[in-house]
Amino acid sequence: MRAEALVFTGVAAFFGVVTTVYVVWGSVEPAGTAVLLISFLMASLVSLFLWIQYRQRGTRPQDRRRAAVHESAGPLAFFSPRSYYPVLTAAGAALLGVGVVYGLWLFLVGVGVLIPGVAGFVFQHNDR
C-alpha cells in the first residue's frame, strides 16, 4: 500500500498547491475554488486511508522490488460469490441522479431504493 499511498499523497499535494495558488491570485469564481478544495480533500482522504492500511498491515510483497511471485499467492480477501445488492445500489443511484433532474418525487424513490442496497452491502455477510 505504500506506493499507492505515495501516489495519492502526491495528488493531494498537487491539488493543495493549485488551490492555494488559485485562491491567492484572487480568483473571483467561487466554483473553481470549491472544486479544487474538494479535490484536495478527496485525495487527502484516500491518502490517509492508504497510509493507515499500510501502517496496520505492513509491507506487502508488491511493495518490495525483489519479491518473488509465489509470495503473494493465496487468498487475498473474501469476495461475495453472489449478490444482487450491487444492482440494487446502482439502480438507486441512477434514480437519485434522474430525480435531481425530474423532481423530488423521483429523488425520494431513489433514496428508498438506495438505502436497502447500501444496507444489504453492509450487513450481507455480518456473520463472518
3D structure, described in words:
The chain is mainly alpha-helical and 128 residues long. The chain contains 4 helices and no strands. The two termini are 25 Å apart. The mean pLDDT is 90.
Brief sketch in words of this structure:
The protein is mainly alpha-helical and 128 residues long. The protein contains four helices and no strands.
Write the layout of secondary structure elements.
Elements: H1 2-24, H2 30-57, H3 85-102, H4 104-123
Largest sheet: none
Evaluate the radius of gyration: 21 Å
Order of helices and strands: HHHH
Distance between the termini: 25 Å
Distinct helical segment count: 4
**What share of residues are in beta strands?**
under 5%
What assembly state would you assign to the polypeptide chains in this entry?
Answer: single chain
Structural class given helices, strands, pairing? mainly alpha
- Principal-axis shape: flat
Average of per-residue pLDDT values: 90
Helix content: 55-70%
Number of strands: 0
The residue ranges in which pLDDT falls below 50 over 5 or more consecutive positions are: none
Task: Write out key terms for the chains shown.
128 residues, mainly alpha, 4 helices, 70% helix
